[in-house]
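Here is my example:
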Amino acid sequence: MKKKTDKMLYVIYALAFSLPFGNIIKIQLITIGEKTFVFALYEIIIMLSIIFFFKRHIYYLKKDPVNIVLLIWIATSIINCMIMIYFNKYMTTSVYLKNMFYILTWSIAMMTYIVFSHAEINDIIKKRLIKVFITSTIIVLIIVIYWEYKLFNITSIITLTSFRLGGFEGAGPPYDSINTNNIGVLFSFAFILLYSFKPTLKVLVLKVVFFAAVILTSSRESIILLVFSILVLFIIEKKCRMNFLVEISTFIIVFLVVFYLAMQYTGVYNGFILRYSAFFNPAKALEEDRLGLWRDIINNLFEIKSSIFIGYGPEGVLHMSRLLLNKNIYNGDNSIIGVFISQGIIGLIFFSSFMFMFFSKLWISIKNSDKLITKSIIAFAIAYILTSLFSPRFLWPYNPLNASLLFFCSLYLKNNNDKEKKSESTNG
C-alpha cells in the first residue's frame, strides 16, 4: 500500500509542475497523413495515471456522483464525435480527425477530477503541491516574457499598437501555441492560490507580479475572473473581509491609474485602451462582442437540422460559421452555446447535470471548510463556472486550465466531504 501511495505522490507532484506548461509547450506525438497532433506533458501524466491506478479509480468512482455524471458526459462526447461524420455530410475527414483529437485531449483534462479524487494526501503535501504549481507558473511567466523579448525586442514594444503579453498569434511555432486568455486565467489562478500562505512581503510581491501580468495580457475575462474570485472569497470568508476589501480596492485603483497613464501615451497602450475601455461601457461591449455573436450562432448555425442532437464537434462553431456565415467564429464565447454546438442537445444535458452537481458540491464544501486555501479554490471554481457565460470554459482551448482547476478541487473537496460523513456518523 505504501509503494502505491508513493507512486501516486510522484505522479501528483509531476502533474502539479507540468499543468501550467500545458498552456505554452506541446509535444508532437501523433502524425496522421498531413496532420500532426500534439500532447502536453500533463496529458501524458494523466493517461499514465489512469493505467497505473485503474482499479482504484473504479472503486472510488462509485463514491462520488459527480464522477459518474462526468464520466457519462465524457463518454457521450466521444460517442457523439465518433458518429458525427456519418450524419454531417459537410464534415471532411481532416476536420473530423481534428475534432476527434480535441475531444480526446479535452476528455483527458476532464478525467483529472476522477483520477485524483481518491488521492490520500495530507495538508503538508497539499501545501507543497501549491508551491510547485506556483513555481511552475512563475517559470511560465519568465518564458513568456523571454519569448516576447525575443520576438519583438524590448525597445520596439512601446511602438506596437496591439501588444498583449503572450500574444503570439501568427508568429509561427512555438509562439502561436500560446493563447493570451489562457495565460491570463493561469496567472489569476496562481494569484488566488497565494492565499494558502501567510501575508508576507514575498507573497505580496508575487500577487503584484501576477496581477500586473494579468493586466498586460489585456485579457478582460482574466481581470473579471480574478476580481470576481476575490469578491466571492469576500462573501464566504468572514474573518478576512477587511483584507480582501483593501486588496481589491487597491488593485482597482492601480488598474485605473495605469489606464489613465496609458491614455497619455501611444504605441503599446493603444491596444490596452481599446480592450479595457469596454469596462467603462459594458452594455455596448456586450452587444458588440457577445450578443450579436450569439444571435448569429443561434439563428444560423443550426440550419442543418441533422446535428442538433449530436452537435458539430469541438471546432464545429468555427467550421460551420465559415460554411454558413463566411466568417470565423471560434467558440462563441459561451460555454452553454459552445457545448450545444459542439456536443448537441445530448451533450448539453450531461454538461448541465455536471455543472449543477459540481456547483452543489462546491457550495456544500464552503460550509464544511474552515481553511482559507480551500475557500480560495472554491471561490475561484465558482467564479470560473459563472464567468463561463462569457467564455468557452470547459471547452478547448482551456484544457490545461480545466485540468488545473479540477486537480485542486479533487484534492480539497474530497477531504471536506469525508469530514462531513465522519461528523454525521459521530452525531448519529
In short: Confidence is low (pLDDT under 50) at residues 419-428. The beta strands are 27-32, 35-39. The first helix runs from residue 2 to 18.
